[in-house]
Amino acid sequence: MNLKAERGAATRERVLTIATRLFAERGYDDTSIETVLQESGLSRGALYHHYAGKEALFEAVLEATEAGVGAKIVQAVRGAGSPEAALRIGIRTWIRLAGDPVIKRIVLIDAPAVLGWERWRALEERYSFGMLKSALDATGTVPAAYLDLHAHMLLAAINESALLVARGGDHATVEAAVEEFLRRLLRTD
Amino acid sequence: MNLKAERGAATRERVLTIATRLFAERGYDDTSIETVLQESGLSRGALYHHYAGKEALFEAVLEATEAGVGAKIVQAVRGAGSPEAALRIGIRTWIRLAGDPVIKRIVLIDAPAVLGWERWRALEERYSFGMLKSALDATGTVPAAYLDLHAHMLLAAINESALLVARGGDHATVEAAVEEFLRRLLRTD
DNA sequence: CCTTTTACAAACCGACTGTCGGTCTACGAA
DNA sequence: TTCGTAGACCGACAGTCGGTTTGTAAAAGG
Question: Measuring CA to CA, which residue among B93, B172, B105 is closest to residue B135?
Fold first, then answer.
């Protein structure tokens, strides 16, 4: 059981790559399974053998994308001097990554609508939100009672600014504004 | 040109009401035009006479919903003592309104995916965002260079907390957390 | 009174998603 | 080596849905 399993895995990955591109370029609704089949040269039956349906395919794409982003952020943060520094570096990295139309469209725009907010949130918990929350906690500037909520709000604010960059906003200005936003939030007096 | 115009307007409003309910209950994708036709007792031709398509129908629903929300917030804010007070009252009102599943699903979840982020943002500019930005400006606590960006981030943060309330989060806790979030943001020293 | 415009109806079209019976081939046991 | 099984893959088909087109009745307007 090796050649078969490998072939299957290769097929899944091929479909995943193509679907990722299409979902990012046209959005979920305007991407037809038909097109995925054509571009991958696969048959209907084969695709539905590997993925339960269009929604499941999207979820797989989303999962892979989030995992990639998570890995890059972890790498960027590695070796940060302080919790605050880690937070800043992580946020800046995330904003830059979200400038990628693939991430913008799939993760930030379509995901909540396609999966429903509940499932989307559960998935976020395992990736960006989870990381942000622990990083925020480590700074020790947010009361425990508000940690979860403030982490949510901060992530939403960051994602919004990432979308603004992706839309063509000036990189430097946005990052400076986010820095200031963060500075005000973390300040204890 | 009176009897006919009235009939048309009445039909449009009837469809709008039914469509609003369906979009809120099932989401955009899982709401079929077919269902709207059945529940309204209208024919295909009639619906497409009044609305250019499914997306246009959704946009009309969204527009009406946002207008309603805007009016309620304006009313709530009326007579606030200071810019800060107006900001706080407006935000609290918005959070409570967004607890309504209709608003949650239509305005916050589906709208960006259906209309595309650009058009969604343009529409928001005319409603919640526009109001928030001018209210924030009036407090005089945010440098002009960052006003637009901080207004965006703040709105995103507020919307997120509204979603958390809608999901079943504790009302009072969320509102307290938002108050604290806002307090930190507006603090100048 | 006659033309135009408007509201509405119904048949129809093309595209799409998901299903189902079936084929082929690698793999492991006899 | 043989043979049964399971997983990869195929393609036809059914059902649904969004949107179009053609047609009708009646109100509006000159």
Answer: B93
Separation of alpha carbons B24 and B13, rounded Å: 16
Write down the pLDDT at residue A5. 74
Q: What is the 3-state secondary structure (H, E, C) of B98-120?
A: HCCHHHHHHHHHHHHHHHCHHHH
Shortest CA distance to B67 belongs to which of B135, B8, B136, B124? B124
Considering only CA atoms, which of B35, B20, B10 is closest in space to residue B65? B20
Name the burial class of residue A11, with classes exposed (0-12), middle (13-18) and buried (19+) by CB atoms within 10 angstroms of its CB. middle
Contact B162, B94 (CB under 8 A): yes
pLDDT at B187: 83
**Record: contact A149-B161, CB cut-off 8 A:** yes
Alpha-helix runs per DSSP H in B27-143: 33-40, 44-50, 54-77, 83-98, 101-103, 111-115, 117-126, 128-139
Residue A168 zone, left/alpha/beta (φ > 0; ψ -120 to 50; rest) = left
Contacts of A109 in chain B (CB under 8 A): 112-113, 117
pLDDT at A1 over 60: no
User: Are A111 and A122 in contact, with CB atoms under 8 Å apart?
Assistant: no
* Maximum separation of any 2 CA atoms in chain A, in Å: 63
Nearest to A87 by CA among A4, A154, A8, A164: A154
> What is the average pLDDT value for chain A, to the nearest integer?
92
**Across the interface, do B113 and A116 touch by the CB < 8 Å criterion?**
no
Pair B156, A160: CB distance under 8 Å: yes
Segments of A25-65 assigned E as strands: none
User: What is the least distance, in Å, from the CA of A96 to any CA of chain B?
Assistant: 16
- Sole residue written with tokens 């939403």: A156
* Mean pLDDT to the nearest integer, B137-157: 96
Q: How far is B105 from A117, CA to CA, in rounded Å?
A: 9
